[in-house]
Sequence to fold (825 residues):
Amino acid sequence: MLITKKTSNLLIVTNVPVLSNFSSTLLQNVADMTNKGAELGLNAVAISTKDVNWQIGYNISYNKNTVTKLNNANNNPDFIQTNPNSGIAGTTSGLIQANKVGYPLNSFYVFQQIYDANGKPIEDGYVDRNHDGQINSADQYLYKKPDPTVLMGISSSVRYKRIDFSFSGRVSLGNYNYNNVASGSTYRGLYSSLGYLSNQTKAANDTKFTNALQTNLSDYYIQNASFFRMDNMTVGYTFPTFSNNKYKLRVSAGVQNVFVITSYKGLDPEISGGLDNNFFPRARIYQLGLNCNFQ
Amino acid sequence: MKLFKVLTIWGLMIVMFVTSCTKKLDTKPIDPLVTTSATLFDNPAAYKQFLAKLYGSLALSGQKGQFGAPEIQASDEGTTCFLREYWAAEEVTTDECLNAWGDGGLVEYHGGIWSDNNLYVQLMYERLFINIAYTNEYIRDVNAKLGGLTGSLKNDATQYVAEARFLRAYFYYCAMDMYGNCPFATEADLPGTFIPKQIARADLFKYIESELIAIQPTLADAGANEYARADKAADWALLSRLYLNAKVFTGTDRSTDCITYCNKVISSGKYALHNNYRNLFLADNNSYRDEIIMPIAEDGVNTQSYGDMTFVIHAAVGGSEDAANEFGIASGGWAGNRPTNTFVNKFADPSGNTDKRAIFYTSGQTIPITNPTVFTQGYLSAKFKNVTSTGARGSNDTFVDTDFPLFRFAEIYLNYAEAVLRGGSGGDRGTALSYINKIRDRAYGNASGEITDGQLTLPFMIDERGRELYWEAFRRTDLIRFGLFTGGSYLWDFKGNVPNGAATDEHLNVFPIPASDRLLNSNLKQNPGY
Fold:
């Protein structure tokens, strides 16, 4: 199924020019957005006999959103509206997402990192994208987006005689996170002025950055958060019925959040909004089930 | 018959719509719990309540004490307060303060490496102009109501408007000092309907000057207003400060005008140097109106915020200092702000035994500062405390009672002497020397600190202003006026972001217009060099 959805007058919290209001931000109807996508779902019964039953379900969706209009006082087509809700945690150096016509919603607004010969990022080394001889906010660019381009779901259940097994999992492709945990980790952060050493994540050792100045606006920290997550696996056994089918008994064992395959360097790639700064880990849950039916 | 019915219904509908639209919509809310600008001034007390909000914007972050109803969005609401931002801009950028938090924005401030993305640059800017927007609203609303008022309320409200104009002039003065060419709006610009134009620094200077002169007859006499409210002396003090820095702002020296307004404050006879320097910065300093011309009023119970004097005092306490008993802040210090060693050495004797203004904490502290984040490196400043002159703790363990002296009489003496040295007329060297020696006599407790006429030079003046006014949010402006803020002729620890200090570029004499506002307002041209 193909979809085209146009949304107009999106409500977005925006900054307002100083002096023109009594708050630095307002909730305004300022943007239009288009979502274009396709969806496909398949459900199949692979085998169906007395002893064996195998069902497979698969769905895939593709979605691309684009900001098509962004109101601003100057009617400037190159207008970039930073997202006030995308503050970088742990520092006081600004916002990481922005919107611009022609780009996906809440794209990351970053400096282009320069790397040394060994592929290590150079501290505060950025590409002078507008070639004016200095590095300032005019060199920031929109890079990647937090929303996935492709989502897939896969599920299957197999029954062999009295034993059954099922799983379901998801794939998310094309979604990027701002790894705020890594961007907040520097050697300097080890020292606290209150007189003790602070914990830093191992990310500090990856970059070996000594300060945390503009480094947290580097595209180095915009990391591919595509993943495959096995959400659920269950195995069960149904006992033979007895007493003229009056009682049924089934035992099962299952795991939720079984495993994740990803190249993302943070704790968990699946973060709504793409800001990885205050994430509470998802639990892995083991379940044992006992089902009794009385007729 | 059917057609007739349809026509009737249509007709009725047309009548209903047309009549409902012809009458002007009355937008006053009838809910008694809702107050809008349309009903606000139905209550006569509101004239003063709104004025109190304008004064409160010097210290507070929003519509609710501590935090919870901010006017400016930031991850830490305390950082959006005027005093915290202004203090950081004037002190952390200079020899008087090296912050230990390693907080990106503040490291950039001290190292002279800030950009137009620096959040402190942005929050200071947003705070100044939101405060100006509120003063504009007050002036517009109250001016519109004045004609309908009578008696004492009319007199009071007229004076309130003058005080609101004073505050607006003060905020514009700060904006002109820090950002040069600023966005500009007055009460004539209705909120939400316009994109502010940019005003040239020299034109803004003229506007501030004309406002401060125009409101003089309406302001209360020197020392005659309620505590912490602007009066004629505050107006004169701000004019003397404005003229002293005029060459930086406009290219034209106005030392003579500076002396004129210093003389007005001095000859008012209301002010003198308070006998004890150290008591001026304690929790009961609200009783020293003899020297403090206008403070930012603070109260541990009624003025609660993390960005006012609470910040200035807490951020200075750390190391082995006794936060509860010595500083009156049992909730603890924040281990952030301390002077550089370069500044400490401005005192020939930093022990405080001779020059009593050297209020440093040295126990357990080491010299030099090799790592700014280690707060036990460098001396700590114990100038501001939340204990009274008798040693009693303030009213709250976190939020302090100590007022911030926005204008104090010693500055007037210093302005006078410097303006004389810069060639202003209306004053003379002999008087200038006597004023400076009054300051020195108080500092030393006797005549041993007095200087001679030969020692009264401009290089002496910048150091003496440092010794007398440190941590009172003067330093950046003062160093710029003396040409020492940027360049390599005066270095301090971690200037240019290197331990021994390095030359910095001249463009840092003004802050950049924040990138965030330039995205929204294409009228704004960036300052050179950014």
